[in-house]
Amino acid sequence: MEYQVVKAINNNVILAKEVGSSEQVMLMSKGIGFHRKPGDSISDQVGSQEIFKFWNKPNMISHTSYDFNQLEQVVRQIVEQVHQRMGVEPDLLYQPLLDHISFSLDRINFGLPLDNPYGTEISVLYSMEYSFAKLAVEHIRKELGVDLGENEVGLMALHFNTARKRRTMSVTMERVNLFNAISTILEEQLELYGQERELELRIFLLSLNNMLHRCSNGEVYLMPCKRQVFVSMKESYEIAKEISTLIEAKIGIHLNDDCIAYLTVEVQKIV
Q1: Contact at 8 Å (CB) between 34 and 116?
Q2: Cα atoms in the Cβ-side hemisphere of radius 13 Å centred on 241
Q3: Which of 8, 142, 223, 260 could form a Cys-Cys staple with 33, CB 3.0–4.6 A?
Q4: Is 262 helix (H, G, I), strand (E, B) or coil?
Q5: For the chain, how are helix, strand and coil distributed in percent, rounded to 5?
């Protein structure tokens, strides 16, 4: 569908009308309003970014507006704290974090949930960033009166880690996606559902992350009884082999028999 811009509300929301029609709609997508001017043409079929459409109603524009200057001030405060506590360069974090939080606020204003299916994986992989993201979300609640919720904690932690490591978000997500795929394997094969099983999954991922960190640093795992482990824990061994194959395919870390035996024992704990 082709639209003509009537007004850019902010970087993420525009008031538009369908070409050939006078009926107005609100379009929301990350960055959709950036440098948009009245009369510009825009399509909802361009790129991979999802575009949300809402029929314009009275007072909807005022409902989607917030004090952007106040938001900028709050984000600067968060960035300064991240700089002091984690050594993150402010220039690497400020704009991506501002864009992210402003889009989250727009989603909340439109009643769209902030989805994050990777909360457990992010909290395991980037625990320091996750802990500080909790404080940042609470700071936003106090200063702006908006509760972004638990899902936002993990999403914000990704931005902190990306800036701290000086890399792209896609690289930050590589290990998150890997751990999510491993979680799926365990959930499906061991039926890890419910809060109690979620805790067991988290403990496994913590052990796995520690093992991968040690392997990356050249440390050697020794499991003298590995043959006995493979024979006595056959089901867990097969799952551990599947996980090790996935790890090598996704991040290029080869796990030898000792590491696979260690994983087998960790899987066995939750069988």
Answers
A1: no
A2: 9
A3: 8
A4: helix
A5: 60, 10, 30
40-97 pLDDT, tens digit per residue, is 888 776 555 667 766 655 555 555 556 889 999 999 999 999 999 999 999 999 999 9
Length in residues, the chain: 271
The β-bridge partners of 14 are: 8, 27
Question: Which domains are delineated in the chain?
Answer: 2-64 (2.30.24.10), 68-167 (1.10.1790.10), 179-268 (1.10.1790.10)
Transcribe 166-189 into DSSP letters: T--HHHHHHHHHHHHHHHHHHHHH
In the chain, DSSP assigns E strands to: 2-8, 13-18, 24-28, 41-43, 52-55
Q: Note whether 237 and 197 are within 8 A (CB).
A: no
Global pTM value? 0.80
Q: Which residues of the chain fall short of a pLDDT of 70? A: 45-50, 53-66, 192-196
Phi/psi of residue 6, nearest 5 degrees: -95, -45
